[in-house]
Structures
1.
Amino acid sequence: MTIDNPDTHVMSNEAMDWQQVDRSYLWHPYTQMKTAPLPVPIARGEGVYLYTPSGDRILDGISSWWVNIHGHSHPYLNEALARQAMQLEHVMFAGFTHKPAAVLAERLIQVLPAGLKRIFYSDNGSTAVEVALKMAMQFWRNQGDDKRRTFVVLDHAYHGDTVGAMSASAESAFTEPFKPILFSVARAHAPYCFRCPVSLDPNSCNIDCLARLETILSAQQDTIAGVLVEPMLQAAGGMIVWPQQFLQGVRRLCDRFGVLMIADEVLTGFGRTGKMFACEHAGISPDLICLSKALTGGYMPLGVTAATETIYEAFLSDDRRKTFYHGHSFTANPLACAVAIASLDLLHQNQSLERVRSLEAIFRSRRTSLQSHRYVGDVRILGGVIALELVRDKDTREAGGYLDRVGPELARIFLDRGLLLRPLGNVLYFMPPYVIRDDEVHWVLDQIDDVLNCWQWPKS
Ligand code: PLP
């Protein structure tokens, strides 16, 4: 690619304009290493491609941080956004309401797992999780039980970067500097079959890793407000795909011990796993669900926390201390709601769930050959996501985790081929917008094949 190297070809006007832009005031996430390459300028997007100011094309293989599902700059979504902007760009949501918020809530209720009946809006995935944690705790308190303030979370969890969401996430480089201000949680095993937490063979086990959750719930049931999980796919923790029995087990245990089950479907919602919501794989409904990312088709920041009627009713009171005092300036932003409604239209019109399932079929057809590479320890596939866990040695399964420098190294190699992949350390994954064509999927998998054929694990 010729990014930042204008000498190699004739520059477009746009590229020349870009050269005048001073980037030195920007503070980008994740790119403060002195040796990190400069962020890639993007001028426009169309379908599955992003274009640099000089016209280089990059296939967006991770849906721009997992948000995009219908492709970039989709005419139908553009129009919905423009139409709404001409009507009402924003109004505060306390004491006021508007049509896009009401219509979106009704549309969501129609597709959400059974029992989720009340829609609370916020701004992004982290705040959707914060809201769920706060709702769960106040739900108990409003009923006179203020002992229930602990949350059970899973190993390898990632729920966002705000303080509550960080507290509920696994300890990592992301959370380490803030440890003194994070609240404590109880941590149960995740069903990470490739590195089984209870050292069993996943082909013959009885989901024994669930026992840890049972032990915690039985020992602390009077103090636990809820269990928070990323159903079926723990994403940032390494694209860990679950057996659906684990998810069924979580629901069963929450019922048995009378605690709330919170599903963080910020990533998995809206078809990414081949079902509208990942909870459907196990045929269960949570008490609270957190949504964001693909909610707006990847266009606008918007969060939703949906709750059961039972939870909502615990807040209904003339005693103002029972009110849920949580609201953001941009709660239920009409532009975001309008584009989310249009995204739901497209999900149905484009038969997106069928499309995701056909992506999964292609991934499965290429599994054996991908698995055969020297450094591929495990191949995990669920819906529109394929992940390769790379290991230095297949016998020892040694790898460096999220901070492993193989991640940035491979990202650079793929970018040079016009492909945006951004491994989570040693976990290389591909998660495209659903509208990607079959030949494009095969092209990406060919690139992965080709790179893994010749690439050598860096010497430590
Ligand atoms: N929850 C899950 C499962 C996520 O994957 C993420 C982000 O990747 C979040 C929450 C946080 O979402 P956001 O980045 O919109 O704050």
Note: The longest strand covers residues 116-122.
2.
Amino acid sequence: MIIAVDGPAASGKGTLAAGLAGYYRLPHLDTGLLYRAVGRAAARFDNTEAFEAEAIRAAQHVNLDDLNPEALGSAEIGVLASRVAVIGAVREALFDHQRRFALRPGGAVLDGRDIGTTIAPDADVKLFIEADSRARMERRARQLEARGVAVDRYQLFHQIEERDARDRLNPNGGFFPAADAHLLDTTQLDIEAALRAAVAIVDGVMATKAPRF
Ligand code: C5P
């Protein structure tokens, strides 16, 4: 079973995807980490002509086993990730890694922006996670604070909004809910309630499918 979990920055899709992976015992890939790794690798060429070429080079050499969520979690790396994510050649270079992961025997859970539309349009279940931007900012602030990072909420809110705008307008992205995606608004839900709601959607969809022999 392939489960695609898409949604905007800090919508809780990563936590939800990890929860679904644990519940259904599937491997999980947070595809945002790929873009974050590329953004970080190209960071020192920011504001130079070499930025795009370095981002493409980094995307061609990215290694799934080297992705460290702790080291890549900052809001600044998130903004860099959204800047390299508009480069078509970066998306192309990252496609195969994600597609191969989705096609692992037994299935997988992937979260990102374009999983249901581009990476795994054939996913068995597609979830599109939403939450209002203030709730998303507060969640991300608490995540960062739990890691000991001092947070300026005003700046974080604007970083999230900036990223949302860039992602929505990404000419090379597929950042919209797939036609067959199930929308889940988690603004009012805590992690457990969101996971219960997601499991109910997945079980509901799978119950309508013929078993595969
Ligand atoms: O999910 P996360 O916030 O870690 O993603 C960082 C950035 O990477 C996003 O803002 C988006 O620009 C980009 N991204 C993408 N496609 C994906 C996953 C992430 O364009 N599948």
Note: The pocket of cytidine-5'-monophosphate is lined by residues 9, 31-32, 35-36, 78, 81-82, 85, 112-114, 163, 167, 173 (CB under 6 Å).
